[in-house]
Amino acid sequence: MKLNRKLKMGMVGGGPGAFIGEVHRKASSLDHGIDLVAGAFDINPKKSKQMGRELLLEPRRVYGTYQQMIEGERKLAPGRRIDFVAITTPNNWHFPIAKAFLEAGFHVMCEKPMTINVKEAKELQKLVKKSRLVFGLMHNYTGYPMVKLARDMVRKGELGKIRKIVVQYPQGWLATALEKTGQMQAAWRTDPKQSGGAGSMGDIGTHAENLSEYITGLKITQLCADLTIFVKGRRLDDDGNVLLRFNNGARGVLHASQVSIGEENNLAIWIYGEDKGLEWHQEHPNYLYVKFPNAPEQVWKRGNPYIAAKSAAAARATRLPSGHPEAFFEAFANNYLNFADTVRAKITGKKPSPLALDFPNVDDGLRGMLFIETVLASTKSKQKWTKFKK
Ligand code: NAD
């Protein structure tokens, strides 16, 4: 049986002036399969109502708090109530909100990092497994077609055994004490209570960690980290450099920074196998560079038939012909596309296809939290290598 209606989405966070909630709203609607019907959009109930009015939602489905939203939605019949919630609040709220919605029987799409510590992440993982509900984690960089192509090339063994991974995520927007000016995104990100134990390493270092494991299928086993706070008075790292060891013997370097002046979102990855190398840049996401020992470098371009022939996942994640760039919104939409197909399969009692299951989940969220805690432990440690926590 096919589900003959759109999925109904609720949102927590994403109030007036918020960043990522609006990206979720736009991206989730890109494929016409999801309707936003309810929300508790802001920590301030009045602003939540204001957001609901701006979005022209049914007033009684715009709630003051997430608890009221759960209560209100549960009173509605299945099919009318929300099918899932998107959590787009600061990090400290992810765990209590995800837990409450899962316990109430709703599927969850959650922003990263998944929680503010490993303890919460493990509890959430248990809860997801027990509930058999779908849990998506918005590591959006896995949603790019050329990232999926890279992963398929590695999986098919085209690079040979992977030897080296270099991954970076430098930004420059926190090079001064922006948080002291009242800028809302900077304020909570630099507050340990709201952000968790790490600053830039949690905020963007986890994207780099996730991308390296997603493309290569390898797991980090040990690391050596050096976190620094450059801006006076700041309480969380604004720069970090990490050496990595992977479970196949590969070595890596990861750096994440929010004081790299002039950098915007310069996430990039280089992967070198025994036979070939790959290079991908988030700010130029439609291209994948393939490197050979004795031949000129190739530029593979999104949207071409040769990409679809090589990677079904990349083809599924492509909406426009080559030369019409796709980027940030589409990558979010691709995670929503697969998440939504998996939710539909659950609702109709079918098995989701392997392509639909291609979105970051609660296990990836736990890896991210373990990464943060290992990096924090390594920074404090006098030993060179710290084992990746379990
Ligand atoms: P933001 O400060 O712009 O927005 C946060 C919103 O959440 C605000 O509207 C705030 O009022 C609301 N909020 C806070 N507590 C709430 C609660 N208990 N109930 C309801 N609403 C609440 O933050 P942002 O930059 O959009 O980041 C939000 C989350 O998204 C963070 O976890 C961040 O790490 C993540 N993020 C991810 C990406 C990505 O590329 N995947 C990019 C940016 C942010």
Describe it for me?
With 390 residues, this protein is of the alpha/beta class. It has 2 domains: 164 residues, NAD(P)-binding Rossmann-like Domain (Rossmann fold, 3-Layer(aba) Sandwich); 193 residues, Dihydrodipicolinate Reductase, domain 2. It is built from 13 helices and 14 strands. A 9-stranded mixed beta sheet has the order 13-12-11-10-6-9-8-7-14. Strand 1, helix 1 and strand 2 form a beta-alpha-beta unit. Helix 1 packs across helix 12, helix 6 crosses helix 9 and helix 9 crosses helix 13. The longest helix has 20 residues. It is globular, with a radius of gyration of 21 Å. The mean pLDDT is 98. Bound molecules: nicotinamide-adenine-dinucleotide (NAD).
Features:
single chain; 390 residues; alpha/beta; Rossmann fold; Dihydrodipicolinate Reductase, domain 2; 2 domains; nine-stranded mixed sheet; five-stranded parallel sheet; 14 strands; 21% strand; globular; binds nicotinamide-adenine-dinucleotide
**Biggest sheet descriptor:** 9 strands, mixed
Helix count from the secondary structure assignment: 13
Name the average pLDDT: 98
CATH superfamily of the largest domain: Dihydrodipicolinate Reductase, domain 2
Number of strands: 14
With strands numbered from the N-terminus, the spatial order across the biggest sheet is 13-12-11-10-6-9-8-7-14
CATH architecture of the largest domain: 2-Layer Sandwich
Give the ligands present. Answer: nicotinamide-adenine-dinucleotide
Write the element-wise H/E pattern from the N-terminal end onward.
EHEHHEHEHEHEHHHEEEEEEEHHHHE
Fraction of residues in H or I helices: 25-40%
Radius of gyration: 21 Å
**Kindly, what is the distance between the CA atoms of the first and last residues, rounded to a whole number of angstroms?**
41 Å
Strand content: 15-25%
